[in-house]
Write a structure and sequence with these properties.
217 residues, alpha/beta, Arc Repressor Mutant, subunit A, 4-stranded antiparallel sheet, 12 strands
Length: 217
């Protein structure tokens, strides 16, 4: 259906393959059915790892649809659904997320080239550091559990000590380990890391409002 509209699509056979493809292939959007491979759990796991747009298709009642939205789905569409509406929904979500390049204050990340600039200066990051920074930027203002960061960075092959080492290098390379830096990378002991952005007044504020936690991972 989407292929005829000009989209390049891929499918996964099970939940683990879907999560692996999410990490390795970096798709722009996910479409899933609510009864596929434990739909609710899979939706929650995807949202823990990424802020990628998620469209869920299914036949649930109002409570079921609300549950999927609370777990992280952006849109729930009741089947059957016509091709024109689905394509329109996909384009609307892609426009909203504008995934190609992320700009946060003076920080620019290009996900297609892995190029990073901070305050007009190119920053040389390793692939793991880039994945970690991208995930932090996508979830700025939220406490991301250590386990979610480890999974995003390496598929659970990274030790906690190695994660802390990567984070220290990120802070050094970006220069945000200095006082009055325009953003701060906070280590909440026993919980995870949180990227906070400084306001023009110099006070650190949450880019997404009240402090939130990413549950799971």
């Amino acid at each position: 259906m989407l292929g005829s509209a000009g989209f390049r699509t891929m499918t996964a056979e099970n939940a683990e393959e879907a999560l692996r493809d999410l990490r390795d292939l970096n798709p722009d959007l996910i479409i899933m059915t609510d009864d596929w491979c434990g739909g609710r759990e899979l939706c929650s796991r995807i949202r823990c790892l990424s802020q990628i747009p998620i469209i869920v298709l299914g036949h649930s009642d109002e409570l079921g649809r609300a549950a999927m939205l609370h777990l992280g789905a952006d849109v729930y569409l009741v089947e059957p659904i016509g091709q024109s509406e689905l394509v329109a929904r996909v384009w609307a979500l892609l426009r909203r997320y504008s995934k190609g390049q992320s700009n946060l204050e003076d920080l620019i990340l290009d996900s297609h080239t892995n190029h990073v600039e901070f305050r007009g200066r190119a920053v040389d990051l390793t692939p793991t550091e880039f994945r970690l920074l991208s995930f932090l930027v996508q979830n700025s203002g939220r406490i991301i559990p250590f386990s979610a960061l480890i999974s995003k960075a390496s598929g659970e092959k990274l030790s906690l000590d190695a994660l802390h080492c990567h984070m220290r290098r990120l802070k050094q390379k970006l220069g945000i380990d200095l006082p009055y830096a325009p953003c701060r990378l906070i280590n909440y002991r026993g919980e995870g890391y949180c990227l906070l952005i400084a306001s023009e007044s110099g006070l650190v504020h949450n880019a997404l409002g009240p402090r939130q936690r990413i549950v799971g991972g």
